[in-house]
Amino acid sequence: MLPAEDKYNSNNQQMNKTAIVTGGNSGLGYATAKKFCENGIKTYIIGRTKDKTEKACEEIGPNAIPVIFDLNDLENIPGLIKDIARNGPIDILVNNAGINLKKEFTETTDEEFRSILHTNLFSVFAITREVVKVMKENGKGSIINISSMASKYGLPKVIAYTASKGAIETFTRGAAVELAQYGIRVNAVAPGFIKTKMVAKAFDSDPERRDKVLARTPMGKLGEPSDVADAVYYYAGADSKFTTGTILCVDGGNSIGF
Fold it and tell me: Torsions phi, psi of 10, nearest 5?
């Protein structure tokens, strides 16, 4: 069993902690899992694709543990968390996994809208609920949800994604208030435009959009995945011990740019 109290070394690196990062086999989730593992946090990386998830864990190192699971399988999430918890307390949960859909409002079907909400919201609720049961027993925990700048202002052709991320932010605040009494903090990080394969693909096919994004970003550049990982790491540790229910924008000022 892991010790109940927090342990830190002389460099304020978190030791003897356990984290779960959903969608941690690529992009922002990968950067976050890497940050955790480099700082001594045993990290369960949940991914749907076996080869991709196992390869990511091999690259990151021995603190990364692959968990092959589709979070759309809500009924089996309780069993998944029980299996992980048998190895010790769960200190940190990062709800990063999510999907997007770029489509005209009037062409988006009910099934497509439901699918986005199912992955981006329903699964977040289900896994958070089960992890909270474990954290309550330990009297502490930190939950970090990944939101998006899409929750800050209107973006065209991503109505389902926008709705899901808006819900994530209100979910974060509601959970923070209810769970504070158990020593559990809940916060969210809202990334702007970050240098990921998904963003690169979008910009390559739409240079006008790229120019518009950079023009309204005061810092005039895209962020790095490590920028988001650093923000998540802050929320995961003792430096944010009196912080809950907040949304941290990591976007170079894009959400307040003119």
Answer: -65, -20
DSSP summary character for residue 201: H
pLDDT digits (tens, 9 = 90+) for 4-38: 333 333 344 466 899 999 999 999 999 999 999 99
- Residue-wise pLDDT tens digits, 149-181: 999 988 889 999 999 999 999 999 999 999 999
Q: What is the DSSP letter of 87?
A: T
How many distinct helices (H) and strands (E) make up the chain?
Answer: 9, 9
Residues in the chain: 258
In CATH, the architecture of 7-250 is 3-Layer(aba) Sandwich (3.40)
Burial of 234 (0-12, 13-18, 19+ CB in 10 A): middle
Q: Is 234 a catalytic residue?
A: no
Give the count of alpha carbons within 13 A of 137, CB side only. 11
Return the domain boundaries, the chain. 7-250
User: Which among 44, 161, 233, 235 is annotated as catalytic?
Assistant: 161
- Tell the burial category of 115 from Cβ atoms under 10 Å away from its Cβ (0-12, 13-18, 19+): middle
